[in-house]
Amino acid sequence: MNAPRGAQQLAAADATVKVVRAACPHDCPDTCAMLVTVKDGVAVKVQGDPLHPFTDGSLCTKVSHYTERSYAPDRLKHPLQRVGPKGQGGFKRIGWDEALDEIAARLKHVAAENPESILPLSYAGTMGMLQYSSMDRRFFHRLGASQLDRTLCSSAGKFGIKATLGGSYGMDPEHYVDSKLILIWGSNPITSNLHFWTRAQEAKRRGAKLVAIDPYRSLTAEKCSQHIALLPGTDGALALGMMHVLIGEGLIDRDYISRYTLGFDLLEERIKQYSPAWAAAICGIETEVVVQLARDYGTAKPAAIRLNYGMQRHAGGGIAARTIACLPALTGAWRDPAGGILLTTADNYNFDHAALERPDLMPAKRPRVINHSRLGDVLTAAEPPVRAVIVYNNNPVAVCPDSTKVIAGFSREDLFCVVMDSFLTDTADYADIVLPATTQLEHYDIHKSYGHLYVLANSPAIAPVGESLPNTEVFRRLAARMGFEESCFRDSDEDIARQAIGSGHANLAGMDWESLKQNGWQRLALPENFAPFAQGGFHTPSGKCEFYSNALKAQGIDPLPFYNPPAELPSSNPQLAKKYPLNFLSPPARNFLNSSFANLRRFRDAEGEPSLELHSEDAAKRGISDGDRVRLFNDRGSFTLRARVNDKPRRGVVVAPSVWWKKFARDRRNANDLTSQRTADLGGAATYYDCLVEVERAV
Ligand SMILES: Nc1nc2c(c(=O)[nH]1)N[C@H]1C(S)=C(S)[C@@H](COP(=O)(O)OP(=O)(O)OC[C@H]3O[C@@H](n4cnc5c(=O)[nH]c(N)nc54)[C@H](O)[C@@H]3O)O[C@H]1N2
Ligand SMILES: Nc1nc2c(c(=O)[nH]1)N[C@H]1C(S)=C(S)[C@@H](COP(=O)(O)OP(=O)(O)OC[C@H]3O[C@@H](n4cnc5c(=O)[nH]c(N)nc54)[C@H](O)[C@@H]3O)O[C@H]1N2
Ligand SMILES: [Mo]
């Protein structure tokens, strides 16, 4: 392995300067390799590692200003205890011992009656294995707390892809430079997958056609060769129409199909009903667009798809992802490293999750499983009730759907709530005790990625700011207070990092923590010209690409691809659409990372204020002009924003870049006041973009 060496040279000139190797912890497919320059104990600069092939020396605007996050004036520096009513954010400073003693006493009290009344609430504020899923999981498993099914983001697509390909596998993103056609599908990489976008641009320079498939003319769609603005949640229909043309016109690879797929005959029969005209009508586009897309896809060699999570935040999102994932096997696109599809690379890693999380510590009678996407109902109506929550790496009041219910839950006087975070988030305002968390510059971690194939090490660059502690240390100290005696509760962070890569899997061959730390990163032991399914080898039960899925059948789901419509598209629910005729999308704002960074001046200034993008026809119908203040509403709630009439959303669709902290909005609300707790067809996933609304001028 050629380790990056450039960093040390930067420091060589000045003895008070050192350069520390780090990894971006945020929930983004790029998982960048970073170099942190530290002078006299202060981090002065964070930059992309120029030698890391995917990061290639550049960071996004947010993370290139990372020191502003770690040294932010509103950083939490001490444990706090609530003094006023819940939700008001009134706190007094307390000491760590007092805070942890109180938490342990309260947890013991609740656990004595029923440990399932305790709920961990964590998501992906950091994606490092140590701070995301190690000591915390051990702690809650040993306690017998309710288990959390983390469904906020990706589980519909994950289980959809799994049905077809067998797991979270796909193309190596570094090979897209050689693709001749790239379908950028439900994905806005300029905002959310920047280092993939640089590969797509390189492919374009080499002659590739880039097609954006998105109801919204995103920054990315604007720069593609073609933009297909279909109706939200109709992607499965588009893929079925494409298959009809591909099969009908013989643009398929019969040799690949016969060797490496399951159920083609049944698929061929099934697909007859899905004509391009049928698909076009569902998608709200022209029939010729469907036909031409299929022909382009069937003839360009190699053809690649970058599928992303935007398309699966709908009631039919899982089956849509499964259906789209059938395309490359039909055309044999997998034969080339620059052909195929990628949603996530996560399953290539094979970290030792059992050692990290120790599910064996759970009681024999497994505690109940709580769906994160239904948190509002859970906190207000679960039986037995949730009586204590510990929130970390998560800002549920801002990010979970159906805020009215979520807030009602967090407002309960009888709910004991601890929030561990670096900032006083919308959720922290409801905490009984707030614990200050370190940022990535202050703790160890080890990372996989869901958008490339490298393992990364993160070493602390600076001492913890204030009295903040890593999540691992908080749970270590809590475990001691709870009297948990298993030796795993005394593992150091570096012990845990070693365990993560100790599974013995071939993809981790030659990897050890000491050299990872020194080099910062290492590619998985996969061939350079990685073409995962060039010769079959799918991870499904049959070992083939499953056009026909027995696993879906066993769940009572149609085993063949079919169109599963969204719940709140006007054609799915004409009754509701009479009141609320517009589809509401709330995808990531470029300067925020979910709700992270939204509290920092630089990024909030860059985003301006909460805004709603509309098509001029939809605006005119409602007497709305650019710059007006508008109220967005449905039966679940409302949110006031500034109208931007810019024709970027297709007619009938409105878009609010998100996720704003409620406390920075004029009406203390955000997009999730509108979204529903309905879950998708697969994986119990959230359906943020399956949401009908109406908008009016606000007075
Ligand atoms: N700057 C920034 N980067 C981020 C994030 C962030 O908040 N900010 N979030 C990170 C996280 S957690 C994730 S999961 C990813 C998300 O990033 P992506 O996976 O790219 O997903 P989204 O941004 O949710 O949606 C992408 C596009 O899908 C479109 N879309 C919505 N509904 C549909 C549909 O039904 N069909 C189709 N074809 N398109 C649709 C949206 O208009 C949007 O332009 O980004 C990560 N990167
Ligand atoms: N309306 C709407 N809602 C959405 C989405 C959308 O597109 N539209 N996107 C959804 C998606 S894709 C996702 S992934 C979720 C994301 O939801 P979350 O995973 O909750 O992400 P964030 O909002 O960034 O909040 C993470 C919190 O973790 C904290 N944190 C970071 N690192 C650490 C650490 O080391 N220790 C501790 N204790 N805390 C830490 C951060 O400061 C931040 O407050 O939101 C979902 N919500
Ligand atoms: Mo996400």
What does this structure look like?
By secondary structure, the chain is of the alpha/beta class. Among the domains are: 5-70, 2-Layer Sandwich (Phosphorylase Kinase, domain 1), CATH 3.30.200; 156-343, Dimethylsulfoxide Reductase, domain 2 (3-Layer(aba) Sandwich); 574-697, Barwin-like endoglucanases. The protein is built from 28 helices and 27 strands. The strands form 7 sheets. The protein has a 6-stranded mixed beta sheet with strand order 5-4-17-16-15-6, with helices on one face. The protein has a 6-stranded mixed beta sheet with strand order 23-25-24-27-22-26. A hairpin with an 8-residue loop joins β4 (80-82) and β5. α4 packs across α22 (471-482), α11 (235-248) runs antiparallel to α14 and α19 packs parallel to α21 (403-410). It is globular, with a radius of gyration of 25 Å. Residues 1-5 have low confidence and may be disordered. The site of molybdenum atom (MO) has 3 residues, from loops.
Topology (elements, then pairings):
Layout: H1 6-12, E1 17-23, E2 33-39, E3 42-48, H2 61-64, H3 66-70, E4 80-82, E5 91-93, H4 96-113, E6 118-122, H5 129-132, H6 135-143, E7 147-149, H7 155-165, E8 181-185, H8 189-192, H9 194-205, E9 209-213, H10 219-223, E10 226-228, H11 235-248, H12 254-260, E11 261-262, H13 264-271, H14 276-283, H15 287-299, E12 303-307, H16 317-324, H17 327-331, E13 340-342, H18 353-357, E14 369-371, H19 375-381, E15 388-392, H20 396-399, H21 403-410, E16 416-421, E17 433-436, E18 445-447, E19 454-458, H22 471-482, H23 493-500, H24 513-519, E20 521-523, E21 545-546, H25 550-554, H26 574-579, E22 582-585, H27 601-607, E23 611-614, H28 616-621, E24 629-634, E25 637-645, E26 653-655, E27 692-697
Parallel strand pairs: 6-15, 7-14, 8-9, 8-12, 9-10, 11-21, 12-13, 15-16, 16-17, 22-26, 23-25
Antiparallel strand pairs: 1-2, 2-3, 4-5, 4-17, 18-19, 19-20, 22-27, 24-25, 24-27
Helix pairs in contact: 4-22, 7-16, 11-14, 11-15, 11-16, 14-15, 19-21
Bound molecules: ligand MGD (2 copies) and molybdenum atom.
